[in-house]
Amino acid sequence: MTTLAIISDTHGALTTENFEGLFPSDSRVITLGDISNKEMKIIKSHHTILGGVKGNCDCNSSLPASDTLEVQNTRIFMTHDPARLKIPSRTEDRENGYDIVLFGHLHKRYHVEDNGIVYFSPGSFVKPRDHFGPSAGIIEIKEGEYDFRFLDVVL
Hints:
Order of helices and strands: EHEHEEEEEEEE
Number of helices: 2
Strand content: 35-45%
Radius of gyration: 14 Å
CATH superfamily: Metallo-dependent phosphatases
Largest sheet: 5 strands, mixed
Low-confidence stretches: none
Number of strands: 10
Number of domains: 1
């Protein structure tokens, strides 16, 4: 089993104190933007960063605007802003399609399956725009099965 820790939109609020112990120790982190370089150092001091993308507030980031990961034969598309996404599923295009699309930016928790793709946003580490509090996400991948869940963040 692979555990992916998903985090987005920290906007300077991530500290060692509120990050330490948030994710299982064997998690590999995916960042979805609006995370400062200082915060990235904190994340790297606790976990391996598997991948990430820059957000609309990341001025000095060398991360790409979007990227693709493959984890246990699961194809994952990452972006910060999900506006106007047109992504093929593996059902539509076995070689170039995706199983999961991860995004941030909206500051809302999101978990929907549509046309063979699971769309997932962990919500926002700070300043959520839904009726939930600050959050992050976990995806567990095992033999082609996925378990998605949200984690409440205590600031």
